[in-house]
Design brief:
By secondary structure, the chain is an alpha/beta fold. It has helices at residues 13-29, 37-46, 61-70, 107-119, 140-151, 165-179, 183-186, 201-212, 234-256, 282-298, 316-333, 351-367, 375-378, 380-386, 396-405, 417-422, 428-446, 455-474, and strands at 32-34, 49-51, 56-58, 82-89, 93-95, 102-103, 126-128, 154-155, 190-192, 198-199, 218-220, 225-226, 262-265, 268-269, 301-304, 335-339, 342-343, 348-349. It has 2 domains: 24-367, Trimethylamine methyltransferase-like (TIM Barrel, Alpha-Beta Barrel), CATH 3.20.20.480; 375-405, no CATH class.
Length: 475
């Protein structure tokens, strides 16, 4: 028995069908713009209608329906709830746990951030998209791989410019050879749609070029903003997002023969006063619930952005916003992925918040932990033995089960008021800051932990980066 992952029917069957039919019309009448003839030709072979002058692929309803019917289905009945997290690093500032200031990244702070993510029990490592250190922008994708491999993080897979593609190929050929794995297993790269419904010239070129080289570049959804790059209404935004997701799955089918049906959601609003695209809003959670129901309707797997915040520093706002989107998404979707340590949408990276998120993740994992309802767990004989006004502290049933039945926090308070006051009045953020500082002191004393990159691979990577630097400088 588990709490999360059960059907949550926010919409009626008629409303689900209306969204489905509307998404079919979008794909048929509007389609998706893909600015590379190679990808358009691949979709034409699948049965899409191609307008070369507009670089547009349209999908007849029967083609979309056929894909949905033939697609590999996700077994919702047997799915086990999952809570996962990684400490992602994007463009932004580092929240120094010692000074409390927001400062530019250094190699030391980057290495520490990755190290802390590996140390925390509920965070599944770290990743970085681009490179936050002072390197030439065109070379960021190469430096991203270098520092991620050097300090044991996962690369986010940035490409950015078309000219960098051959050099990325060189890096992965060297890495695959060192790890003795096929190149396609070592390779990782990602581009993103331009919302709505557009795969831009550079992104399309990169997908097509690596495809011709036998490699797959993942395509992320457009992460629409309601009122800006998506309709202002939840119904319209979710419908458009569904059309985009189906278009991407059809492209996967055309390029790689993959018939995996997955529906993701990364919708939020545009703040009409400030024009930002915030993360900590209820609309994100509602869009996730609606999309999860659509995924169940199709027999598709589901993922939704959640556990994010607009708060600039660790605060009540940060915790409340993370819970606002994470808990509903987990309940309806059966899984949730958090960006541990991330604040201010995706501008601030806080070791203190990462420790706080680690605590929250532990609670979430216990929340979805499978529990048993049996005669043993009910403990009827123990209840009878305790009787009216009795207690269970000294019962064998308590001894046998309390460790597996109860989750124990390490940061959240476990004291009543008086002992808390006597012990220094430390708040959760104070404790989290101390944990981060302790790890920082330890790694400074012992030396920075490194990844699996050998000295020979490091030389090869740096040689490739220098070759790219010289070539791009000449251009």
């Amino acid at each position: 028995m588990h709490v999360a992952g059960h059907a949550y029917d926010l919409m009626s069957p008629q409303e689900v069908d209306l969204i489905h039919q509307s998404a079919l019309r979008i794909l048929d009448q509007v389609g998706i713009e893909i600015q590379d003839h190679r990808l358009l030709e691949a979709l034409a072979g699948l049965g899409a209608q191609i307008d070369k002058s507009m670089q547009r692929a349209r999908f007849p309803p029967h083609l979309v329906e056929r894909f949905i019917i033939e697609a590999d289905k996700f077994d919702w009945e047997r799915a086990v709830p999952r809570v996962r997290a990684a400490a992602g690093v994007y463009h932004g500032l580092y929240h120094d746990p010692v000074s409390g200031e927001l400062v530019p990244w250094t190699e030391e702070s980057l290495a520490f951030y990755f190290c802390l993510a590996r140390r925390l029990s509920e965070v599944d490592g770290a990743s970085m998209l681009g490179c936050r250190l002072p390197v030439p922008p065109a070379l960021e994708p190469l430096y991203e791989r270098y520092y991620c491999w050097k300090y044991g993080a996962g690369e986010g897979g940035s490409i950015y410019t078309d000219e960098i593609c051959p050099y990325l190929l060189e890096l992965y050929q060297a890495r695959a050879e060192e790890r003795q794995v096929p190149l396609d297993q070592a390779f990782r790269a990602t581009v993103y749609l331009v919302p709505p419904l557009k795969l831009g010239r550079h992104e399309a070129y990169q997908v097509a070029t690596f495809w011709e080289w036998g490699l797959r570049v993942r395509i992320g959804g457009g992460m629409g903003a309601m009122g800006a790059t998506a309709p202002v209404t939840l119904a319209g935004a979710v419908t458009l997002n569904l059309a985009e997701q189906l278009a991407l799955r059809l492209l996967d089918w055309a390029l790689f023969g993959e018939k995996r049906l997955h529906v993701g959601a990364g919708l939020s609003v545009m703040d009409m006063r400030t024009t930002i695209r915030p993360y900590g809003r209820p609309e994100m959670a509602i869009a996730n619930l609606m999309t999860a129901q659509l995924a169940r309707h199709y027999g598709a797997s589901f993922s939704g952005q959640a556990g994010l915040s607009d708060a600039k520093l660790p605060s009540v706002e940060a915790g409340a916003q993370k819970a606002l989107t994470a808990v509903p998404t987990l309940l309806a979707g059966g899984s949730v992925w958090l960006d541990a340590g991330l604040l201010s949408i995706d501008e601030v990276f806080s070791p203190v918040q990462m420790v706080l998120d680690n605590e929250f993740l532990g609670a979430l994992k216990r929340f979805v932990h499978e529990f048993q309802i049996t005669q043993e767990t009910i403990g009827l004989e123990t209840i009878v033995e305790a009787g009216p006004g009795g207690h269970f502290l000294d019962k064998q049933h308590t001894v046998a089960h309390f460790r597996e039945e109860h989750w124990n926090p390490t940061i959240w308070s476990r004291r009543m008021l008086r002992p808390w006051m006597e012990e220094g009045r430390h708040l959760d953020a104070d404790k989290a800051r101390e944990v981060a500082r302790q790890v920082l002191c330890e790694v400074r004393q012992r030396g920075w932990e490194t990844g699996e990159m050998s000295a020979s691979l490091e030389r090869e990577v740096l040689r490739t980066i220098e070759s790219a630097r010289c070539a791009l400088h000449r251009e």
